[in-house]
Amino acid sequence: MGTQPPFGEGLRAALGAPRRPRRLESSPRSRVWRVELAGTPAVVKQLVAGPGAEERYAREVAALRIAARAEPAVVPALLGTDPGERVLVLAHVGHRPPPREWIVGYAEALARLHATALPADAGLLPAWSGPTQGDADSFLHLAETLGVTVAPGVPAELTALVGRLDRAGGHALLHGDPCPGNDLHARGGVTFIDFEQASLGNGLVELAYLRIGFPTCWCVTKAAPALLDRAETAYRTTWKTLTGTDPEGDLTDACAGWLLRGDALVERARRGTVDHLARIPDHDWTWGTVSARQRLAHRLGVVAGMTADRPGLRGLHTVSTDLRRTMAARWPSLGPVPADRP
């Protein structure tokens, strides 16, 4: 079962028989092989049957077709599909170790990916879903549990934040998980893979990954301020060049939204199961490069800095500052997140 990729008669008629299959590492939700088609390397990906598999397959196919508009390419070419078996055949893209300042090229490529979607694409992918009121309530409960005073106006601030993110709109093609490992670095630039969580929405919710620490990812990094500024400028400049407009939305709101989401402390298979913020006082756990408490402390520091002079979020600034200080005193061994990706 693991050695031969599923390659039905329709794919064989269109692309020929796959040769020299080799299984590649992938998530538990998919099986991936490298093959040769007429002497040219290609990749065969099959989404494993299970809850949500059909939707994830449809998202990936739709996203790849939209993103194929980019020149130069930011996704592998989609060579063929077999919806019945949830199979995609993709052009193989080479990868080499990313440069030290990789986030600049990453941010430019992310802007080019986001800009491929058009207003007419509405309905081809789901709209992005932001934090909920339940997320805001869980965050405030955590603060109170750890002895942090929550001023009377803070709940209303967070309710307004949730509402702004919900109304932010936008038609950018969002990857859904634009993490280290889902970006391939080659001489021609950055190519993104694995679009099972793709959606349409405001691009700044993914530009925020660079500041807030890649919230859906195993690999959390913190870039130096000057490098972060270069990357964000590259994103905004590229977006404006391609669309003729400045990016809409608010980066501070986007980062604050990720802070509220307890599900952004665990890998995908564990999301939507329990209130993960409620676990923080009594439990810590490691996912990827850092622990859950390290992730949260980093995000608190980012949001505290961004909201210091922000009308409408000054209460969140105080809570974030005090909560981070409390965590540092309660768990003094918490270290900073890494500066470099593995």
Protein described:
The chain is an alpha+beta fold and 342 residues long. 39% of the residues lie in helices and 15% in strands. It has twelve helices and eleven strands. A five-stranded antiparallel beta sheet has the order 1-2-3-5-4, sandwiched between helices. β4 and β5 (87-91) form a beta hairpin. The mean pLDDT is 96.
Spatially, the strands of the biggest sheet line up as 1-2-3-5-4
Largest sheet: 5 strands, antiparallel
Number of strands: 11
Between the first and last Cα atoms, what is the distance in angstroms?
Answer: 32 Å
**Oligomer designation:** single chain
Q: Which word captures the global form?
A: globular
Run of helices and strands = HEEEHEEHHHEEEEHHHHHEEHH
| Range of strand content | 5-15%
Low-confidence regions = none
Short note summarizing the structure:
This protein has 342 residues and is of the alpha+beta class.
Output the keywords.
single chain, 342 residues, alpha+beta, five-stranded antiparallel sheet, two-stranded antiparallel sheet, 12 helices, 15% strand, globular
Secondary structure elements and pairings:
Layout: H1 9-15, E1 19-24, E2 30-37, E3 40-47, H2 53-67, E4 78-82, E5 87-91, H3 102-114, H4 133-145, H5 154-167, E6 172-174, E7 183-186, E8 189-192, E9 199-201, H6 204-207, H7 209-212, H8 225-243, H9 251-260, H10 276-279, E10 286-287, E11 290-291, H11 292-306, H12 314-330
Antiparallel strand pairs: 1-2, 2-3, 3-5, 4-5, 6-9, 7-8, 10-11
Helix pairs in contact: 3-8, 4-5, 5-9, 9-11, 11-12
